[in-house]
Amino acid sequence: MYRKIMDYLKKWKSSEHRKPLILQGARQVGKTYSILEFGRTCYENVAYFNFETNPKLNETFAENISPDYLIPILSHIAGQTIIREKTLIVFDEVQLCERALTSLKYFCEDAPEYHIIVAGSLLGVAVNRTRFSFPVGKVDMKTLYPMDMEEFMLAMGEEQLVELIKKCFQTDTPMPAALHDAAMQLYRQYLVVGGMPECVMQFIQTKDYILVRNTQNTILASYLNDMSKYNNLSEIKKTRLAYDNITVQLSKKNTRFQYKLIKKGGRASEFENAIEWLCLSGIVSQVYKVEQVKKPLENYRDIDAFKIYVSDLGLLCAKKELLANDILYMVKELDDFKGGMAENYVNVQLSINGYHTYYWESARGAEIDFVIQREGKLIPIEVKSADNTRAKSLKVYMDTYEPDYAIKLSAKNFAFEDRKKIVPLYAAFCI
Q1: Residue 212 pLDDT more than 70?
Q2: What domain of life does the UniProt record list for this protein's source (predicted)?
Q3: Residue 356 sits in the same domain as residue 262
């Protein structure tokens, strides 16, 4: 399956300023697969080392972390010669070996001709919570997310449809009605299947939603296991409570996160470490409210007002135990959840495209789902789960800030009207 990360990795390989690369992201998003596929296609050989399956590797790094010392030993362990610029060295689950992470500094300074990529599921947690000597300034960093809507459609064999969607997005011309309906159906399938590569692969091969759900439940179980394995004892219960409650809060009319809904009398001081753990692990992301829409948006965020979205739509549906058919046909019983699910979907697509997302609220309660900086301009984004797209809040925002244009995401076909770029939900990846 095509992953966009491959284009980034090829540029990294040929860059004059290449440093050892840290590829981070939540568990099961496809880090190891992408790295090994990149190594297979772009290098003569790959020397792969996994600190989870081979704990003795830690002993090697405990003795000495200079490249001159490590390379001959690593060659011996891998059973193949590590050749400058021709071998890709891979350290997997590197969060389990602090010294391996520190060694990247010396590879950068003393042996830049060796190509190294390290991967870890909980690097953010490990680096933040222990006394790691992190190689600041000596590494390149990239986050891998679950597959986005474009990668999902390509995996489903819809290359021509993807190209047409991109063209219609650029020109604001409607898709042919039949193709628009087909793309909306793919969007609903994506909500059920999500972007975890194993789930997407299973769906392509079997079209069996029950089998996909079993895999999603296994991934959710591994997340819960991580919360116990890589967390302070005092924080485990709070982290699980917070995670369980996030999906509940997405069903509320106001999706702003409230600590008191985790448990009666819940406060920030009690749960903020748990929320931070979930964010650092890549399982969820926080979207802060901005009090004013000015550059840079980060300067105007309200640290006490935020929403939390999960990193994968399929896992969200599995966590809520939603039936595939209920989502595919958007049954009425889901009305309370449709809005939060569509917002979550859009946040995932925007995050994958590298945007820092915020939301805005007026003093009188008008709310814009997302504000992003796109091509140097601050652009509001309104999200509707259906094609009923009357948006009073957007009018309030546009009267207040007079943006160049706004983006409205809904089930409606492409158009441009009254300074609003109308974009179907399936095309959020184009933004």
Answers
A1: yes
A2: Bacteria
A3: yes
- Do 136 and 158 share a domain, yes or no? no
Laid out side by side, the sheet with 284-290 consists of: 301-310, 284-290, 358-361, 367-374, 377-383, 406-410, 420-424, 415-417
What percent of the chain has a predicted confidence (pLDDT) above 90? 87
Number of domains the chain contains: 2
Same domain, 161 and 125: no
CB atoms within 10 A of CB 390: 7
120: domain CATH number is 3.40.50.300
Report the C-alpha gap between 109 and 178 in whole angstroms.
Answer: 57
137 and 174 in one domain?
no
Q: In terms of domains, do 328 and 195 share one?
A: yes
Residues in CB range of 195: below 8 A, 6 or more apart: 29, 145, 146, 147, 148, 151, 152, 312, 313, 314, 348
pLDDT tens, residue by residue, 371-428:
999 999 999 999 999 876 667 899 999 999 999 999 999 999 999 999 999 999 999 9
Choosing from 108, 143, 178, the residue where a domain stops is 143
Query: Residue 3 contacts by C-beta under 8 Å, 6 or more apart in sequence?
Result: 30, 34, 147, 151, 197
Q: Are 344 and 314 in contact (CB under 8 A)?
A: no
Provide the domain limits for residue 14.
Answer: 5-143
Q: Looking at 123, 143, 163, which one is the last position of a domain?
A: 143
